[in-house]
Amino acid sequence: QVQLVESGGGLVQAGGSLRLSCAASGRTFSSYYMGWFRQAPGKEREFVAAISWSGESTSTANSVKGRFTISRDNAKNTVFLQMNSLNPEDTAVYYCAAGLGHYNTVPSTRQLYDYWGQGTQVTVSS
User: Fold this and answer.
1) Which of 4, 30, 35, 114 pairs as cysteine with 74 (C-beta 3.0–4.6 A)?
2) Which pLDDT score is estimated for 81?
3) What is the DSSP pairing of strand 18-24 with strand 4-7?
4) How far apart (Å, rounded) are the C-alpha atoms in residues 63 and 61?
5) From CA 15, how far away is CA 35, in angstroms rounded?
6) Inter-residue contact 120 to 8 (CB < 8 Å)
7) Are 81 and 117 in contact (CB under 8 A)?
8) Phi-psi sector, 106: left (phi>0), alpha (psi -120 to 50), beta
């Protein structure tokens, strides 16, 4: 089992940047693929980005491609989401998630993730 704690959210102006972190407990962190999802008020939780257990494979939603980058440091049991060129449509609660399994591509489907953090709020002002 793994526990996830997100940090790094906050209020930022449009065009600004934030870096989210997700710290994981447990010694098997490197076995999990990791993902970031977000949920805006009144909307479904949606996929943002994911990374394989090794960090060699990543997947990014079209809506954030070229602006957001996911990475991980297995030695520190941490996954990151670098968010640049933020706009008000990026306002949401951002969740970190972890999953186990072998897939041809890193999963973007939330049902394939087994563990979730509590989320961190990101607010982008215009």
Assistant:
1) 30
2) 98
3) antiparallel
4) 5
5) 24
6) yes
7) no
8) beta
pLDDT digits (tens, 9 = 90+) for 14-34: 999 999 999 999 778 889 999
What's the helix, strand, coil split of the chain in %, to 5?
10, 45, 45
Q: Which residues, 6+ apart, have CB-to-CB distance to 18 below 8 Å? A: 8, 9, 10, 12, 83, 86, 122
- Reported in sequence order, the residue ranges of 3-119 that DSSP labels E, i.e. its strands, are 4-7, 10-13, 18-24, 33-39, 46-51, 58-60, 68-73, 78-83, 92-99, 115-116
Q: For residue range 39-89, what is the model confidence (pLDDT) as tens digits? A: 999 999 999 999 999 999 999 999 999 999 999 999 999 999 999 999 999
Confidence (pLDDT) at 103 = 86
On whether the CB atoms of residues 28 and 74 are closer than 8 A, the answer is no
Residue 53: per-residue pLDDT: 92
